[in-house]
Amino acid sequence: MDAQSALLERPALRNDESVSDEAARIIALVRSKGDRAILELSEQLDGAKLDALAVGDKEFAAATDQLDDESIAAIDLAITHVRRFHEQQVPNSISVETAPGVRCERISHAIESVGLYVPAGTAPLPSAAIMLAVPAAIADCPTRIMCTPPRPDGSADPAILAAASRSGVKDVFKIGGAQAIAAMAYGTESVPKVRKIFGPGNAWVTSAKTLVSTDPAGAAIDMPAGPSEVLVIADDDASPNFVAADLLAQAEHGVDSQVMLLTTSKQLVEDVQLEIEGQIHCLSRADIVRQCLENSHIILVESAAVAIEISNRYAPEHLILQISNPRDALPGIRNAGSVFLGAWSPESVGDYCSGTNHVLPTYGYADSYSGLAVDQFLRQMTVQELSKEGLVQLSAAVIKLAGLEGLDAHAAAVKRRLGGPP
Predict the structure, then answer these.
(1) Parallel, antiparallel or unpaired: strands 318-322 and 229-234
(2) Does position 349 have pLDDT exceeding 60, yes or no?
(3) Would you say residue 295 has pLDDT above 90?
(4) Which of 253, 317, 347, 358 is catalytic?
(5) For 190-194, what is the mean pLDDT?
(6) Which pLDDT value is given to residue 3?
(7) 111 within 8 A of 353, measured Cβ to Cβ
(8) Measured CA distances, 75 to 57, 159, 160, 319, 364 (Å)
(9) Does the annotation count 87 as an active-site position?
(10) What is the pLDDT of residues 127-162, one digit of tens each?
(11) Are 132 and 359 a contacting pair, CB within 8 Å?
């Protein structure tokens, strides 16, 4: 079991303390120096010398002009599918008469201000802009801002800007890393403070999100969403070509990503390794992929049931089931951010345009967190309304329970309404 635990350890967690210390240092700088700290950090960390943090109208217009028609069409298709799936997630209000004269309700309101973080380091992610902005727009959050790292020339990635504007976000700031999280959590001269922060990022972003979420003066967060990961469960029927392609697709996200294969087939292990070596040469990010693979593993297991047990323990961000009758195995899957069933469901479609959200819990947090959805941009509150008759019905129970807890004033609030002695 100890050996298995070592194999399932996320690489980014090994330097957790140093990452947290650096994130805390950056947060403190931004809180004390505001925009000036962000401009200095942008030059130090991103190599970008900025005149202003906000993206202006001219840069938005120029960004769209830089994209060809096919790129705009792909962005619009993704927005359409993500909106179609997420529109069905809006919760209905509830109104229940729990007893005659006693009505209880649950209603939703949009969070008033939200901050969306879109990574753009070694791989800009316009898809993340869509995944964050579309549900925020459906929830109708009044204030929606986005932060994304600047490029060395001081501009923001044009595809991210196009995706943001077409998804309903007009206020974008060229800020990356922990400093972006700090700016949105506490506000600066340019960046408004928000009440909740959303979006994936590297270990420093994830650590900064955790830190600001524990500070009453900071901001709430969606979930721990750090370096990306995938776990593939495959059997003898799986295609080595497809399995290798899925592993490599996730590995190219970054050197701190992790890919795992659990299989019942010794032959598949050999075939997938050969496929990986054959396919990796065709990739533009082959160096990053090779570094990622150093922290990744192929594990031979005795049965699909054992593989699922291990997967539930690992709680992957993405889980791909390339096994016979994958839907039959779905009821046994408890801990995963997003599941992909069968040979024709590559993780790539979930990243872009199937309609599901790709902002998902990592680091094993899929055992207690859900992927991003519309309800996370909403807050719910309950309402109760009683008639006098309804209060009379409940009065004896309220008075008795208040007595059990020694809370006399609770009981008196009922007794006084009914004309009895407190």
Answers:
(1) parallel
(2) yes
(3) no
(4) 317
(5) 98
(6) 62
(7) no
(8) 20, 9, 10, 25, 30
(9) no
(10) 999 999 999 999 999 999 999 999 999 999 999 999
(11) yes
Residue 34 CB partners (closer than 8 Å, separation 6+): 188, 189
pLDDT of 181 > 60? The answer is yes
pTM to 2 decimals? 0.92
Q: Which of the residues 81, 86, 318, 358 is marked catalytic? A: 318
Residues 183, 216 contacting (CB under 8 angstroms) = no
pLDDT at residue 274 above 70? yes
User: Would residue 86 show up in a list of annotated catalytic residues for this protein?
Assistant: no
Alpha-carbon dihedral sign for residues 346, 350, 356, 359: positive
Q: Is the pLDDT of residue 13 over 60?
A: no
Tokens representing 74? 């792909």
Kindly give, in sequence order, each residue whose CB lies less than 8 Å from that of residue 340, ignoring residues fewer than 6 positions away. 318, 319, 320, 321, 346, 347, 349, 350
Q: How far apart are CA 30 and CA 39, in angstroms?
A: 10
**Who's near 270: CB < 8 A, 6+ residues apart?**
none
pLDDT at 4: 66
What average pLDDT score do residues 103-127 get?
A: 93
The CA distance from 244 to 280, in Å, is 9
CB 317 within 8 A of CB 366: yes
Contact indicator for 219, 194 with CB cutoff of 8 Å: yes
Domains delineated in the chain: 11-223 (3.40.50.1980), 227-370 (3.40.50.1980), 387-417 (no CATH)
